[in-house]
Amino acid sequence: MSKSVIKFKNVAKHFGSQTIIEDLSFDVAAGEFITILGSSGSGKTTTLKMINRLIEPDAGTIEINDENIENIDLIELRRNIGYVVQQIGLFPHMTIEKNIATVPELLEWDLKDIKARVIELMDLVKLPYDQYGQRFPKQLSGGQQQRVGVARALAANPQIMLLDEPFGAVDAITRKELQKQIKAIHEELAGKTFLFVTHDINEAFYLGNKVMIMDEGKISQYDTPENIVKAPKTAFVQELLDTVYEEGALWGALK
Ligand SMILES: Nc1ncnc2c1ncn2[C@@H]1O[C@H](COP(=O)(O)OP(=O)(O)OP(=O)(O)O)[C@@H](O)[C@H]1O
């Protein structure tokens, strides 16, 4: 088995008197693409944010490369973790080139290396540098801006990518296109570990080599898409799958 990159051990999180996560344990191996699926409020975003310490757990430990993240310098930790959210957060007054170069510039990379990295990443997300490098975010579509967000998160070559509903705000056709691209990017960047939060069951089962299904702060099932479909473990998982089967039946009837 591949080496574990992320390990949750009996993690708990409360907000005030509300228990969001009671006792969460799981492992993610190097190079996996994990999708986290679940109903609203089930703790998906909280789980993701505990990995880059935007949220601190109240109990338990989280390890990255077998080291408790509390013992890793915060800047070092976040440099190793790319983070993409739905509300993109590109800097509006900066060109696309400058947006992608933010972290390498902070790290004081050589100017030549920064430019080469920007060109490489813009190629990767299919926004050629010559055409898009000097544009500003508002001159791109929502889907293109999301791709810049992915490129920016990859700039310093992190080992882990956290993606929180990154394609939540785009239309269905663009979303499908972005899903294909992120899958290809993950395959091309062999060895990088992706954790991707989504509400969308189709997206979760298409992208994840493993899907983590969360319900009320607990893992209902964490397995390959095939195993989940073959043997749903809880009524909640079955209910989720039924939504897809019902949709299939609807479209079948319309044809
Ligand atoms: N900073 C906070 N203070 C208080 N409660 C919070 C805070 N952040 C999250 N919560 C609560 O924790 C619960 C889980 O939130 P979380 O964002 O992790 O869920 P989620 O599964 O990502 O939901 P969604 O799919 O709607 O984004 C929710 O009930 C939310 O209201």
TrEMBL record:
Pfam families: ABC_tran (PF00005). Its EC number is 7.6.2.9. It comes from the Bacteria. GO terms for molecular function: ABC-type quaternary ammonium compound transporting activity; ATP binding; ATP hydrolysis activity. Residues 6-241 form the ABC transporter domain. PROSITE patterns: ABC_TRANSPORTER_1, ABC_TRANSPORTER_2. PANTHER family: OSMOPROTECTANT IMPORT ATP-BINDING PROTEIN OSMV. This is ABC-type quaternary amine transporter. It comes from Aerococcus agrisoli.
